[in-house]
Amino acid sequence: MKLKTALLGAAAALAFAPAAHAERGSDGEVKILYYQAVSTLNAYLSSGTKDVEAGSLVLEPLAGFDQDGVLFPRLAESIPTVENGGVAADLTSITWKLKPGLVWSDGTPVTSADVKFTWEYCTAEGGGCAQGAKYEGVKSVDTPDDLTVVVNFEGPKPYPYQPFTGGTAPILQKAQFANCLGAAASTCTEQNSKPIGTGPFMVTDFKVNDVVTLAANPNYRDPAKPAFATVTLKGGGDALAAASAVMETGEFDYAWNTQINPEQQAQMEAGGKGKFVNAFGTLVERVEINMTDPSAELAEGERSTTKHPHPIFSDAKVRAALSKAIDRQALVDIGYGGAGRPTCNLVPAPAYQASENTDCLTQDLEGAKALLAEAGWTDSDGDGIVDKDGKKLSIVYQTTVNPVRQDFQALIKGWWNEIGIEVELKAIDPGVFFGGDAASPDTFQKFYADVEMYANNFDGTDAEPYMAQYLCNKIPGPENQWQGENVNRFCDPAYDALVKELSVTNGIEARGALVKKLNDMLTKDSNVVIPLVDRGRFSAQSNALGGFVMNSWDAELWNAQDWTRVK
Predict the structure, then answer these.
(1) 242 and 294 share a domain?
(2) What's the angle, vertex CA 506, arms to CA 503 and CA 508, rounded to 5?
(3) Could you report the per-residue pLDDT of 294-338, keeping only the tens digit for each?
(4) CATH number of the domain that 496 lies in?
(5) Residues 6+ apart with CB under 8 A from 390
(6) Exposed (0-12), middle (13-18) or buried (19+): which is 283, by Cβ within 10 Å?
(7) Does some domain include residue 16?
(8) Residues 355 and 485 in one domain
(9) Among the listed residues 87, 83, 112, the one whose alpha carbon sits nearest the alpha carbon of residue 97
(10) In terms of domains, do 356 and 319 share one?
(11) CA-to-CA distance for 283 and 534, rounded, in angstroms?
């Protein structure tokens, strides 16, 4: 069998390597702005992209994905394949070799024991691992010597590159995190705030939900990199202010996720101080439907848990009505322009995995009203809000504080009002919403609302771990410190079985067909996920920052070691 899924080996990674820097730290400070403030630098304790991105400056996986989605080695010496003997012929194991001489930022050796420990950390009983889907199907990890890691799977794994790859699955230092397994994970404040890593930078100070300061890692494996001596990664504010800080005032070198409308984009770019960088991948703005009851009348440990199905959205016709009422092209026009495309798919790319589903692209308000009527929801008292069994159809719709998202909320509320649904809008600070704090009532994992809107994507080009996030055993709740990835509490044994089939299916076309089926089960068949916009990753880069390469398949900060100051 030949594994052709963009696995071109280590040589492919060299194609984008820039010229070597003259001297480590010679370019002074680089200033980065993430208006969604960073809450933790441990990707295993947060599903928030902003936390994964920030952590990627410090913590690294065995392999990453380049700007074309091609896997390339980071801590690994090369990419294992069947052809080079690194992947077993029966596909039940993959063997990684660490680069010789790797050390952590504290000068101690990186060994296979650290890699094995990382798997143990994410799968420890009683813990809450936000990236558990990356290790789905791993039976054991062996370490025959200090530089060799053998990942054994429960059965044949045609795509064996999920564990330890991409920004969401970095390697943790065993010595630092040894006492942080299971329920203790979230209590390890020092470790989660100042992880010892192998990346180009190391943390010098971290003020949670405010600012991270970093310095060049003196033990980074390339002695000429990074060019910047220090990094200041500031959080807070909003997307408009973040874009302005790069494009107008020049205060920052790079601002992430500058989600502003097309008119504002054009005005800022005309100033000539920077440019907006955009790349399409798998980032989809969507509405997630809560399949459980978020009522505040329930006890804290009972809210949004599977013990209590949602009293309204358990009916598929009501969920379908919400989707039919939305004009997705109008959302693109007001929010993204050329940086967005209307979509009905949770997985919009690559093409072999993208469903042909286009049914949702035409708004159908009358069809939405008809579905509500079929479900028994009618306006019995003429006040414009449908009701059933004496209960009004009234919902809470939450998202993050962001001007584009507030525009979306206003438009969607208007359409839902037109079909007779009463909507209360809620906007939450993005640092809190995506922060993963188990004690907060406002995280997107807790989901104390009826519907919520956000966007995320997955590492690389293979959607298997992304689809695995919606498995029944990935539901967040008190028992896993609210860290499960299945935020809408969807649970269907048929879906779980199809994910299992995907995990053992070989061949691009066959795997793509299964991803399409899984996508359709979540979207057009059940409408538990309502995709809105296929968003390009869209950020602001100063003209004074060199070496930045936009990456929609991994962390945007993926090549920070190659950044330079344009003289």
Answers:
(1) no
(2) 105
(3) 999 999 889 999 999 999 999 999 999 999 999 999 999 999 988
(4) 3.10.105.10
(5) none
(6) buried
(7) yes
(8) yes
(9) 112
(10) yes
(11) 6
